Hints:
The chain has helices at residues 5-20, 23-30, 37-57, 64-88, 92-116, 120-147, 153-180, 188-213. It is an all-alpha fold. The longest helix has 28 residues, at 120-147.
Amino acid sequence: MKTGLYSILYSIISHAAIICCFIPLLIIVNRKLQIEKAYLFTALYWLLNGLLNTPTLLGFGTNHALNLQLTLLYNLLDAPVVLLVFMFSTTGVNRKIIRWTLLAFLLFEASMIAWKGYNMTSSTIIIGAGTFFAIAFSIMKVMEYLQKMEHNSQENSMVFVYGSFLFDYGIFIVIYLFSYLGVGKNNFEDTFMIYYISMLISTLLSSLGLWMFAGKPELQEPGSLNSYSRL
């Protein structure tokens, strides 16, 4: 267990990262954007991250049984929620592709649990596959944005979200290799320091995009978010 300045820095960063997970929801509620599902599920994604880590914020981080159950549940919800963000911010054929990917992933999760059980073995496979899809669709959405010359406010806000996902899941690959797959020597505190730094930067990036552009009707073009944010 490290002491001194490192422990103080760890505490500050971890608490700041967890608290920042609730900022996107506050922005969405304050601007009354709950009806816009791309924004709503973005806020829900970060809310789930915050709730997962709330025991740490409240001083219950050493309750391993509670942490295990929260981790298993979160790993089931993680990729489906991210795919919903992509689906509700996409139109046309790509939206159908994401919808079928989501349905296939839910079946994949069910089959993994039926095969391996509801435990860290199945969870490791599920979160690994989810990370792949999150990174793949984040890259796809960022590339779509860069290929356009003009953008409406929804596109400008969501590209920050895609960037935050790309950064968050990209860093998570390192955590996945060490913590889930056991590659190399895993230092618990160092791994979680990386995790919380990644979370802090990613939540702030998403929050910045939502704060700067979400709910700016004067910047939106006809047929943008409002035309495809509902089933």
